[in-house]
């Protein structure tokens, strides 16, 4: 139970990205943009860390969280596949969000920045 952990700075970046995603997804819902995808993203933002922590508690003492996740994916464990798929979905949501921002920029704004 007292195994290795990821460095604090990695966890800080990880949770800051989750917080940023939560704020932006909430803003998207309020502004009625990519609403369903944003709702699903918020659900995953809560579910993925909880599942990851619950199943990471029982990891081997010489593995950190990431090593345990990768090992469990290799073993085909359902929780690990869910966590990996959840992270992948959040990355895809960011790509969709950033493309929507780029699409909404007017041609005048694009030419002013050139």
Give your account of this protein's structure.
It is a single chain. This protein is mostly helical. The protein is 77% helix and 0% strand. It has 5 helices and no strands. The protein is elongated. The model has no long low-confidence stretch (mean pLDDT 88).
| Strand proportion | under 5%
Kindly state the number of beta strands. 0
Q: What form results from the Cα inertia axes?
A: elongated
Average of per-residue pLDDT values? 88
Number of helices, counting only DSSP H or I runs of 4 residues or more: 5
Our Rg estimate from Cα atoms comes to: 18 Å
Q: What is the H-and-E element order?
A: HHHHH
User: Alpha-carbon distance between the termini?
Assistant: 54 Å
Largest sheet: none
Structural class assignment: mainly alpha
Helix fraction bin: over 70%
Low-confidence stretches: none
Explain the layout of strands and helices:
Layout: H1 8-30, H2 35-56, H3 65-74, H4 78-104, H5 107-112
Tags for this model:
mainly alpha; 5 helices
Write a brief caption for the model.
With 114 residues, the chain is mainly α.
């Amino acid at each position: 139970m007292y195994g290795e952990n990821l460095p604090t700075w990695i966890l800080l970046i990880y949770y800051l990205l989750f917080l940023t995603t939560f704020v932006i997804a909430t803003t998207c819902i309020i502004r009625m943009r990519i609403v369903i995808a944003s709702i699903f993203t918020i659900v995953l933002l809560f579910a993925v860390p909880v599942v990851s922590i619950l199943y990471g508690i029982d990891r081997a003492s010489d593995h950190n969280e990431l090593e345990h996740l990768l090992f469990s994916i290799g073993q085909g464990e359902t929780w690990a596949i869910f966590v990996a798929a959840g992270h992948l979905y959040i990355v895809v949501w960011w790509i969709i969000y950033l493309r929507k921002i780029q699409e909404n920029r007017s041609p005048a704004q694009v030419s002013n920045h050139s």
